[in-house]
């Protein structure tokens, strides 16, 4: 398709230009382009948003001037061409129509009809974990993920969270490696560790899944459930810092030495979570008088004081980095 993506606004309504538009779609058809490629290429040709709606297959595809294909509704002022089976293609140009908009819509409709027939490969049956795996795959196209969501009974634009769990959690799920991916609209209490991805349109579930896995890496015995939205800059840190770099940090190495002392890491986690010695003691169900000696021991190993906001921030960062390293296999 390289070299063939012509902006429709640059073509006149003459026979030569019409042949170019026809040839554009003929090449898509003969090359058996995927539906994502059809929508994306058509939007680049038109220079404006276009879309394809096939409710029987759960397809609600759109793209804006060659951008990424997403799931989106039919715009109110779009020009629409209906096909059999409730299928519709549309073009939504701002302002006056381009000279060849009618022809583009006609050839878009023809190409959609042909390619829909070519692409109607049967997917796994309803409830099959393979459907969930397809929904969460970065390598799957928007059309394939839309079909999988349709078979799961989930609208492509419906809000959905993905959880990354180390144990069984209620909801549609599939085991991916050592982590269970769960599709849900609500987060329930769990006995195991859980990373909670952001609520996104279901078609973007792969992004929520990656975020959930990042959140899972920040879990600990003291904080078994972590929400990605609450990580802030720590979410970016997980993608940028290597395990070897973490292990080489003096603060992390000091925590490794302290971890050999029972309950020390749990106490330091509680101090960072509560912000005070008394509250940390209460959270750990200990009398606050038992804390000073242990904190003094931690300070001697860490090499900095913990009774200031700066010291506790440094401790918290080291603790979170250590979690990233400890949970790297998740």
UniProtKB/TrEMBL annotation:
It comes from Lentzea albidocapillata subsp. violacea. Transmembrane segments: none annotated. It holds the Pfam family HTH_30. InterPro entries: CdaR-like_regulators, PucR_C-HTH_dom, PucR_C-HTH_sf. Gene3D superfamilies: PucR C-terminal helix-turn-helix domain. Residues 267-320 form the PucR C-terminal helix-turn-helix domain. It comes from the Bacteria. This is PucR C-terminal helix-turn-helix domain-containing protein.
């Amino acid at each position: 398709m390289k070299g063939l993506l012509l902006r429709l606004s640059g073509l006149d309504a003459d026979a030569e230009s019409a042949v170019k538009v026809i040839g554009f779609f003929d090449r898509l058809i003969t090359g058996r382009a995927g539906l994502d490629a059809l929508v994306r290429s058509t939007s680049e040709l038109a220079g404006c948003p276009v879309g394809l709606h096939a409710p029987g297959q759960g397809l609600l595809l759109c793209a804006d001037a060659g951008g990424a294909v997403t799931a989106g509704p039919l715009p109110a002022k779009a020009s629409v061409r209906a096909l059999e089976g409730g299928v519709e293609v549309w073009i939504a140009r701002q302002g006056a129509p381009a000279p060849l908009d009618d022809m583009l819509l006609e050839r878009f409709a023809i190409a959609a009809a042909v390619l829909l027939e070519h692409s109607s490969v049967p997917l796994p049956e309803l409830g099959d974990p393979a459907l969930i795996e397809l929904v969460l795959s970065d390598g799957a196209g928007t059309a394939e993920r839309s079909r999988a969501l349709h078979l799961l009974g989930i609208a492509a634009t419906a809000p959905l969270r993905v959880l990354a769990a180390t144990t069984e959690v209620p909801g549609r799920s599939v085991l991916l490696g050592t982590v269970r991916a769960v599709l849900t609209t609500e987060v329930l209490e769990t006995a195991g560790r859980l990373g909670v991805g952001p609520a996104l349109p279901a078609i973007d579930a792969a992004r929520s899944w990656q975020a959930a896995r990042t959140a899972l890496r920040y879990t600990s015995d003291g904080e078994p459930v972590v929400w990605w939205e609450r990580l802030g800059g720590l979410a970016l840190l997980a993608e940028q810092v290597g395990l070897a770099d973490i292990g080489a940090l003096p603060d992390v190495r000091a925590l490794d030495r302290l971890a050999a002392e029972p309950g020390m890491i749990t106490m330091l986690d509680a101090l960072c979570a509560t912000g005070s010695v008394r509250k940390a003691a209460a959270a750990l169900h200990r009398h606050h008088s038992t804390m000073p000696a242990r904190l003094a021991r931690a300070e001697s190993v860490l090499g900095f004081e913990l009774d200031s906001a700066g010291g506790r921030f440094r401790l918290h960062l080291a603790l979170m980095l250590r979690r990233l390293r400890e949970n790297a296999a998740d």
